[in-house]
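A quick aside before the break. I want you to see a complete sequence-to-structure record at least once, exactly as it would be stored in a machine-readable document. Don't worry about memorizing anything.
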Amino acid sequence: MIEKVNEAVDFIKRLHSEKPQVGIVLGSGLGHFTNEIKVEKEILYKEIPHFPVSTVEGHSGKLVFGTIGDKSVVAMAGRFHNYEGYTAQEIVFPIRVMKYLGIENLLLSNAAGGVNPDFKVGDLMLINDHVSQFVPNPLIGKNDNEVGPRFPDMYEPYNKELIQRAKNISKANGINCKEGVYISVTGPTFETKAEYRMIRAIGGDAVGMSTVQEVIVAVHMNLPCFAVSVITDMWVDGHELTVSHEEVLKAAKEAEPKLTCIFKELIASL
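That is the input. The structure line, written in tokens, reads:
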């Protein structure tokens, strides 16, 4: 695995030698954040050795290098999912590559379904914890102790200081952010009524098809994480619900300016 990571890193460094300070992962319908980056180099996933390729609408499929303010960043415009047929190890491969490129913090976003009745479509939820048992763990298999420990501590996978900074930024900009627990599932099906009830019963506030495996690997490599869910659809027990991917993308696009504000100011504070 590390040999493949190093091959990808060496390829990227030949095209762009600047060390990024912050890594960014953009979820479904949130790719326009790259417009905030003063772009220095874009590299298509399909050009990078061992990189998977995005197959989902709303994920453009490239690494974007540049600056936001005085910070050097690399953004994933498009991520990978179990439902595309990728293994857990393939899904997290770009996270390992960004770490080996030199990033010191990882910011992630996703589109998620809300199950907390206090939420509404368009809300932002700062993720303070997650449940990972419904997706394959990317650390299964032989461990490389030079990368991280065999049994990493996941007690606080989302950095408390970054969460507090985001809260302060939200308050200062009049953004009403929620906070809660993200449940990751494989997809590609949206949840049944019984599954929504189960997710709420085990303590979930939002459910989605990404992020958790990426955060597990980041924590394994001692990389501080901050993540936000855009609530793009809602389930409330007793109410009828239908949801489509098109509706998810539309809701994400409408909420994107709020996410952009938080990410930009959080990056500036690092």
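Two observations worth writing down. The first strand starts at residue 22 and ends at 26. Strands lie at 22-26, 38-44, 62-68, 71-77, 105-114, 124-131, 177-184, 206-208, 225-234. We'll return to this after the break.
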